[in-house]
Write a structure and sequence with these properties.
By secondary structure, this protein is mostly helical. Helices cover about 50% and strands about 0% of the residues. The chain has two helices and no strands. It is rod-shaped, with a radius of gyration of 20 Å.
Length: about 60
């Protein structure tokens, strides 16, 4: 979701402009990234890589 088309309930201006403290806070909240500053897609790829690495280790160890 993007804040380009959202209108602030407090100042009635587009949130993207950040004219009031509420606009700025909501704009900042919407532009936050996932865990550790990584986008959610990168976190998903990292988890998949870890899954395959653990499966490879299990296969190589013969357990």
């Amino acid at each position: 979701m993007s804040c380009e088309h959202l209108v602030c309930a407090q100042c009635a201006h587009p949130v993207i402009e950040g004219r009031c403290p509420l606009c700025r806070a909501n704009r900042e909240r919407m532009h936050q990234h996932g865990f550790a500053g990584l986008p959610p897609a990168a976190i998903a790829v990292l988890l998949i890589v870890l899954l395959f690495a653990s499966l490879a280790l299990k296969h190589l160890s013969g357990l």
